[in-house]
Write a structure and sequence with these properties.
By secondary structure, the protein is mainly beta. The chain has a single domain (about 10-275), classed as Sandwich (Jelly Rolls). Helix content is about 5%, strand content about 45%. The protein has helices spanning about 10-15, 20-25, and strands at about 5, 25-30, 35-40, 50-55, 60, 75-80, 85-90, 95-100, 105, 115, 125-130, 140, 150, 160-165, 180-185, 190, 195, 200-210, 215-220, 225-230, 235-240, 245-250, 255-260, 270. The strands form five sheets. A seven-stranded mixed beta sheet has the order 1-3-4-11-6-9-12, with no helix packed on it. A seven-stranded antiparallel beta sheet has the order 2-21-18-23-15-14-13. Strand 13 and strand 14 form a beta hairpin.
Length: about 280
């Protein structure tokens, strides 16, 4: 199978990137295709990001040469959140019903993973994020009503939103993978502002729940050297530790955040004052 490879870009080099170069290095434009598993391997903390959209029959998670092992999960862990219709994930033959906005954590060494849709008219869309792992943890289904939920922000600042933490200490044990979903309310458009960096881990954003004509203007780059990417529904951003990650949409939207790196402390952020942004 084909897998896209993304190399690491130094922040000093990124200062000189034009729009095309920024998109080539940091934007994953195609994540979901009917009947396919699409994967991108990033050398930023060796994240693997992808999507599986089963339509005719089950899709097995392949093992691309880039991961360097005989089985995808031999030295990795996997998190998936379903952003489509009702679905099922089989792990070593055991079935897990994964409904819309439910998550499944699959630990290192768990075996073969296969994705299915339960309704051909509404195919499941499994968003996938994988990080290297050092220990085997239990495979866990986390329905959205079992996620740790917080309501934050305000209408006055256009950022009223609900945060659901799925894979995080206290909710689901993992080696380094952290994963959750943020839903902005109608009338709110800003995410993660005031912004921050966290040099101890990298992050990836999947923007979804956008109308076809809607867009998110994702802000990235060093705090004093900001850049932006225009993002459509179902596209993802790779965010290295030195970069801010924030954005504003032409309407409300949802996004999935996932992190891998040195720690799993959700509050480990280096805040950036509004007056320091350039």
């Amino acid at each position: 199978m084909a897998i896209e490879i993304r190399q690491v870009a130094h922040p000093e080099a990124v200062r000189g990137f034009d729009t095309a170069a920024l998109r080539r290095h940091f934007l994953i434009e195609r994540l979901f295709a009917p009947g396919e598993v699409l994967l991108t391997y990033s050398h930023i903390d060796r994240l693997v990001v992808g999507g599986a959209m089963p339509v005719g029959g089950p899709l097995v998670l392949p093992t691309p040469r880039a991961v360097g092992t005989d089985a995808f999960l031999a030295r990795r862990e996997l998190g998936t959140i379903n952003v489509g219709g009702p679905g099922r994930v089989r792990v070593a033959g055991r079935a897990h019903e994964v409904g819309p906005r439910d998550a499944l954590y699959v630990g290192m060494g768990a075996g073969e993973v296969a994705f299915e849709s339960l309704d051909p008219a509404r195919p499941a869309k499994f968003y996938l994020v994988s990080t290297p792992a050092h220990a085997a943890h239990e495979t866990v289904l986390i329905p959205q009503d079992r996620a740790r939920t917080m309501q934050v922000g305000a209408q006055e600042t256009s950022n009223r939103r609900t945060i659901r933490q799925y894979i995080l200490p206290g909710v689901c044990t993992s080696c380094q993978l952290v994963m959750g979903l943020t839903q902005l309310e109608p009338g709110s458009t800003w995410n993660t502002m005031p912004c921050h960096t966290h040099d101890r881990r990298s992050e990836v954003y999947l923007y979804f729940d956008l109308a076809p004509e809607a867009r998110v203007f994702h802000l990235m780059g060093e705090p004093q050297e900001t850049r932006h990417l225009v993002v459509a529904d179902g596209q993802a951003i790779l965010s290295p530790g030195w970069s801010i990650h924030s954005g504003v949409g032409t309407s409300h939207y949802a996004f999935i955040w996932a992190m891998g790196g040195d720690n799993q402390d959700y509050t480990d952020m280096d805040m950036v004052a509004m007056g320091d942004l350039r």
